[in-house]
Design brief:
single chain; 443 residues; alpha/beta; Rossmann fold; three-stranded antiparallel beta sheet; 22 strands
């Protein structure tokens, strides 16, 4: 059954869903435990069968990145020279950085997809879910690591509101839009809390390009983009099958969860001491990349499958029970993403419809009208000889708007925008993206 509408008081913040180090010794045998997800998911078997994501493009939108880290050398990683942001002096912020604080998150979420298996001396090889794929990397900027100051301006000189991590909603929206225009098959976003991504998300839904986004590591509310209509919010679980918990010990249950994947006790490359060291981490960030990598592998095997059909197979072939009718709960959503299950079933048998999109709720964000507007716009843009010369109809902007910090209290998140001394409280309503009963149990 469809769940009732839920009032979402949205407040923007960037929650990097990971980089929580798990204390461990440096012994290789201990670190090797962080490859549990690769072994349990039968990922190597898929690669040995020739399915490693080759020919598939995944767009990753994150912070800065260090593409020269061990495990990414030689991978098909395409990184533009600059981010979408400019500093206070008007200079472009570089997308590449060797600063661990600035680049660790982006580097490691990409490694979950593209990891080549190369390791430093004495280290443990880290191989990604889809090492043969192409990753187009879009950096949304970061704060100045020397001064701690945050300043992000777009190329046109307009100042963008940023949070403490230096992200900008405009930059994120532009990155999503560009990823679609540049042919991404899948968009992977391991952060949450942006506001006003309605236009960019509507464009992705209209284009049939899946957005896979990490849920917050605590708090339950998916925010943007993970909680938006049509987006897949990703939960993290550990080798014991239990989902992530908050510091209080409460499970990270969420009405916005769409699927779940390994994200606890994951081996990554680099520590604050050295990029050649390794550690175990936890977070939905890594689960998000693993889901994106799995879908890239499935897309390679079934190249005729649409993005919507990839999402259909994700929910019809989850867990270990084989193909089944989807059932949702607020723990793992439609269940754990299963590479083996998805590879066994041709997704073109499923309808070309996004199962995470509720087209019937006019209050959904985005709603069917928003998507229809962008669908019409995409058709005009793709026409070799457009016949319409008049101005395009008014539509939601894909450029987004500003970001403000969020505060969680009593399970309610409030967005406060200050403009001209006036405080504007914005609340958004969104109906459930799930259409089945939920119990809070695990799949």
């Amino acid at each position: 059954m469809r769940r009732p509408h839920r009032l979402l008081a949205v407040l923007g913040a960037i929650a990097l869903g990971g980089m929580i180090a798990v204390p461990s010794s440096a012994a290789a045998e201990d670190l090797a435990s962080g490859l549990w997800w690769f072994d349990r998911g039968n990922v190597q078997e898929a690669h040995d069968a020739g399915f490693d994501g080759s020919g598939v493009t995944v767009a990753v939108i994150d912070t800065q990145i260090n593409p020269d880290v061990v495990g990414l050398r030689g991978a098909d990683l395409q990184v533009p020279e600059n981010t979408y942001c400019h500093d206070a002096a008007g200079a472009p912020i570089p997308a590449v950085s060797t600063d661990y604080v600035a680049a660790a998150h982006g580097t490691n979420v990409v490694s979950m997809i593209l990891g080549t298996g190369e390791a430093p001396a004495g280290g443990v090889p880290i191989k990604g879910a889809a090492p043969g794929a192409t990753v187009k990397y879009y950096s949304a900027g970061l704060e100045d690591q020397d001064t701690g100051e945050v300043s992000c301006a777009l190329e046109n000189g307009e100042q963008s509101t940023t949070d403490d991590h230096g992200f900008a909603a405009e930059a994120m929206s532009l990155a999503i839009s560009d990823a679609i225009d540049e042919g991404a098959d899948i968009i992977s976003i391991s952060s949450t809390g942006y506001v006003f991504l309605l236009g960019a998300t509507a464009k992705a839904v209209a284009a049939g390009v899946p957005i896979i986004a990490g849920l917050p590591n605590e708090g339950g509310v998916g925010g943007q983009p993970a909680g938006l209509n049509g987006v897949v919010g990703v939960q993290a679980f550990g080798s014991d099958g239990a989902i992530a918990t908050w510091p209080s010990g409460e499970p990270n249950l969420s009405d916005d969860v769409g699927t779940a994947a390994p994200g606890i006790g994951i081996l990554v490359q680099g520590t604050e001491a050295s990029w050649d060291e390794q550690e175990l981490v936890r977070g939905t960030s890594f689960a998000t990349s693993i889901v994106s990598g799995f879908l890239a592998v499935v897309k390679q095997k079934y190249p005729e499958a649409t993005g919507n059909q990839l999402l259909q197979t994700l929910i019809h072939n989850s867990g270990t029970k084989g193909e089944h009718e989807p059932e949702w709960n607020n723990s793992t959503g439609f269940g754990a993403a299963s590479l083996t299950g998805m590879l066994a079933v041709d997704p073109t048998k499923y309808p070309d419809e996004n199962p995470f999109f509720d087209a019937d709720d006019p209050n959904a964000v985005p709603n069917a009208d928003d998507v229809a507007t962008f669908a019409a716009d995409l058709e005009v843009d793709s026409s070799p000889e457009p016949t319409q010369t008049s101005a395009a109809p008014e539509q939601p902007s894909a450029d987004g708007a500003g970001v403000t910090p969020w505060v969680i209290g009593g399970g309610v998140v409030l967005l406060i925008l200050l403009a001209g001394g006036i405080v504007l409280a914005v609340t958004l309503t969104r109906s459930s993206k799930r259409r089945t009963d939920h119990t809070g149990g695990q799949s």
